[in-house]
Design goal:
With 80 residues, the protein is mainly β. It has strands at 5-8, 24-25, 31-32, 50-52, 59-61, 66-69. The chain has a two-stranded antiparallel sheet. A two-stranded antiparallel sheet has the order 2-3. Strands 4-5 form a two-stranded antiparallel ribbon. β4 (50-52) and β5 (59-61) form a beta hairpin. 9% of the residues are buried.
């Protein structure tokens, strides 16, 4: 049975990062893609509990960005 798919989207506006953004900045000055590391800065190892959306600027718990979508099953009946 296929596993549900996990998507990343802003809980406030539903914006979805493409995976190429390097626009999140830590207080240590390092910039990176926060979802590549689960919200942990690769430079100083600070674990961010919230993440700010690059589209709407709202901050939400980092864990709220991860959504599991149900797998859609389509049953195809072959013609007789």
């Amino acid at each position: 049975m296929p596993k549900p798919e996990t998507i990343i989207a802003c809980p406030q506006c539903n914006w979805m990062p493409t995976g190429f953004e390097q626009d999140w900045q830590c207080t240590c000055g390092y910039t990176w893609h926060t979802f590549a590391t689960g919200g942990q800065c690769p430079s100083c190892r600070h674990q961010w509990q919230t993440t700010q959306c690059l589209a709407c600027s709202c901050s939400s718990p980092h864990s709220a960005w991860y959504r599991t979508t149900p797998v859609q099953w389509y049953h195809q009946i072959s013609p007789n």
